[in-house]
Amino acid sequence: MTTSRRLADRKVNRFDKNISRRGAVLETSTKKGKDYPVGPLLLGFFIFVVIGSSLFQIIRTATDGGMA
């Protein structure tokens, strides 16, 4: 058997082995639960700033007399 034939057979065997393992994901590798990248306090502060600034802008526009 030549070297290239041996390498080809080894590649085919690896490929066949991987075909039978497709879709079998370990349970530990999947994420469980709701883990947010930002803490709830920081998220609340961000929402407070965004909504507060928009309300402030609406009130300021209403008291100044519109867009003119």
Overall description:
Helix content is 63%, strand content 0%. By secondary structure, the protein is mostly helical. It is rod-shaped, with a radius of gyration of 30 Å.
Summarize this, please?
It is a single-pass membrane protein. It is built from 2 helices and no strands.
**Structural class category:** mainly alpha
Q: What kind of sheet is the major sheet?
A: none
Count, helices: 2
Quote the average pLDDT. 82
Strand content: under 5%
Order of helices and strands: HH
Radius of gyration: 30 Å
Separation of the first and last Cα atoms: 88 Å
Helicity, as a percent range: 55-70%
Question: What is the number of strand segments?
Answer: 0
Give the overall silhouette.
rod-shaped
Uncertain parts: none
Could you give the topology of this structure?
Layout: H1 3-20, H2 40-64
What would the keywords be for this entry?
single chain; 68 residues; mainly alpha; 2 helices; 63% helix
